[in-house]
Specification:
Keywords: Isomerase. There is one protein chain. The protein has one domain: Chorismate mutase (Chorismate Mutase Domain, subunit A), CATH 1.20.59.10. 78% of the residues lie in helices and 0% in strands. The chain contains three helices and no strands.
């Protein structure tokens, strides 16, 4: 006989929801990066710069407001978006051959 504790059904339910949310986040990020890859290819084609500081500033401000409205730490949301933006710019620079 096993001495393993009986799984807690409430905790198991929470974890299942977290797993579903994590899967959705990965799928959404994959789709976002597919779109930003197309943007990077377009920018390279029409010789636009990989980064758009004004757009980034607007997006960060918009997502900070959304975070506050959603009771999420706006500092966290900004760090998360900055991480994504930096990765997108890296991809755009690669598309532009830089």
């Amino acid at each position: 006989m096993s001495d393993a504790p009986t799984p807690d059904p409430v905790l198991a339910g929470f974890r299942k929801s977290i797993d579903n949310i994590d899967a959705a986040l990965i799928h959404m990020l994959a789709e976002r990066f597919r779109i930003t890859q197309a943007v990077g290819e377009y920018k390279a084609k029409v010789t636009l710069p990989p980064a758009d500081p004004n757009r980034e500033k607007e997006q960060i401000a918009r997502l900070r407001r959304l975070a506050e409205d959603s009771e999420l730490d706006p500092e966290f949301s900004e760090k998360f978006l900055r991480f994504i933006i930096d990765e997108v710019i890296r991809h755009h620079e690669r598309a532009a051959g830089r």
